[in-house]
Amino acid sequence: MSRTARTRAGGARLFAAYAAASLVPVVVLGAVLAAAIRQDAVDRALEYGRAQAAVVEEMAIGPALRGQDLGTGLTQAERERLSAATDLAVFRGSILRLRLRDFSGAVLFADDGAVGPVGVLPDYPAGEDVVPSTGPGFTLAAGGGTDVALLDGDGLAVGRVIRVLQPIVADTSGRSIGVLELLLPYDAVAAEVEAATTRTYWRLGAGLGVLYVVIGAISWSTTRRLRRQAAQAEHDALHDPLTGLPNRELFARRVEAELVRGTPGAVVLVDLDRFKEVNDTLGHHAGDQLLREVGARLSATVRSGDTVARLGGDEFGLLLPGLDDPADAREIVERVSDALAAETVVDGVPLAVEASCGIAMHPADAADVETLMTCADAAMYQGKRGASGVVVFDRRSTVPSAHSPALQLEARRALEDGDLRLHYQPQVDLATGRTVGVEALLRWQHPQRGLLGPGEFLPALEQSGVMGALTEWVLRRALADCAAWTAAGEDWTVSVNVSVRNLEAPGFAATVARLAAAAGVPPARLHLEVTETALPADLAAASACLAELAAHGFGAALDDFGVGFASLSHLRSLALTEVKVDRAFVTGVDTHAEDAAVVRSLVELAHGLGLSVCAEGVETPEVADWLRSVGCDRAQGWHFSRPLPWPELTRAAALVPALPVEVLP
Predict the structure, then answer these.
(1) How far apart are the C-alpha atoms of 528 and 306, rounded to whole Å?
(2) How confident is the chain (665 residues) per 10-residue block, as mean pLDDT?
(3) Strands lying side by side in the sheet with 355-362
(4) CATH number, domain at 300?
(5) Tell me, what CATH number does 23's domain have?
(6) Of 68, 79, 66, nearest to 107 (Cα)?
(7) First vs last C-alpha separation in the chain
(8) Which of 398, 433, 464 lies at the terminal end of a domain, its last residue?
(9) Global pTM?
């Protein structure tokens, strides 16, 4: 079932559940209202009986008695007046039975002549023959109240009846002299009430029906709107807003689905060449137009079952399922490349789009999405460096660029997984020939490519946002090794390279001091090196950090001195202890007069500022001798030792070539 079909089915289920749920309160409301209406009908009937009894008592019984006290009984004349006053109502059927009782409950007058003491009268309704004088209804009526009840009228051969017990007031004093008992027919009243109730039921049912329909319409509309919004939100979350193509997330899902399915295929990364120039020269709106055009051309060129995605920026991805031969994938990608190369006009400017494409095959190159993307990324960057813009990944020859996102991810993981190493290169005192310090150099033990130098991966780490964590790791490792070789009897200092970004980070000097204290290394044994070419124009933050480090007792060196743009004012303002002359000048000092003049001047300048000098890249004894002759303090290079792990460094230090001792003028 497709995602759209599942969404619709889910929406239908949601509406059905909502409709069923809304029906329950409507039915309950209808039942409550119906019960209330029925009870209202009964109350209206009882109120009718109360009113009838009041009329009979006031208009017929009271005037007929003319103030007579029922306690002394009734005369024949009074019975006749009562009979005459009530005959018409009884005859018309508005009263079924009429009784006058004294306070003891004895019947003093009955419309049918059945009078006598308290007892059972055979023509009373079943179970209601006796109105005991101690009953709550009689007591209420005797006290001046009115009791109304709905009774079964089986004894009268009628349906239900309304019984009213009403006090009899025969004079203007308001004093009750007895109790009037009336049985009134309920059916006629009930018929009228039932008709009114039925009409009310219909109105209620119609109203509830309309309410339910309205609720249903609202729920259906809401469900549809929510379904559309959910579908739109899902689409937006998985598609690029500029081109409408799947984004990186959806592309990864589809690649994962192909891997789970087990069918072979190819993943292609397409990166536009010189796209930044379009943005810079024509503007971002032109760049957006070009990206839309590229997306359209890619979609028009690949097969119907292939996926085209925009992964971000000017990078696109292709998923080509069903291919197990790299040649077939290359053929499709070359068609894509040719389609992109066709001239397009953006803002009236004709452009020819060039792209670098990297192809990785699954499952041959990788069996998971991340590794497959890394392989395609490495092939794509090789395409940028080579003559061909379409490259199929080959593990033996494809090397990621130091700036590629894939290598950034690998380098970050190397830091997390402990695959980074520190090697150390000795720094030799040229006056004595003794190793006095070492420089920590970062290495990566790559699982496929072996031991890598910093130039092959450090740019990737610098762009990955982990330089702070990396520098702290290097410092912690270097200080631990320094403590170890100190315990072994060596008094070497250790130099660690840091970036200007580290110097500008708040609290960096405090962090260095904390790490040194934790390792038990005196501050004077740690030197921090900052590259001259990386110095910013505004040195305020870096200068403040170096001053704080100096206050703690740490040394600081300016690395690659001579190839950057450090001015004399910079050298004066920075709290430095040493400058390191770049190998670009050192290598040729014994054969090139220009290099010799530069190095001699740099040594004199540094000494004039009170700084020591260390020369890098010393590879021959002739260069070492020349440096010693011009007063250079220290040197390092392959002439003395290549970088090694520190346990091997002790043996290498013992083999450092001896230098002739000469007293310099």
Answers:
(1) 53
(2) 54 63 68 70 79 80 74 77 72 73 84 57 43 81 85 65 84 78 78 72 74 76 81 86 93 93 93 85 88 94 94 93 93 92 85 89 89 87 78 74 63 80 94 93 83 76 74 93 93 91 88 95 94 64 89 90 60 85 88 91 91 94 94 94 86 54 35
(3) 307-312, 315-321, 265-272, 355-362, 390-392
(4) 3.30.70.270
(5) 3.30.450.20
(6) 79
(7) 91
(8) 398
(9) 0.48
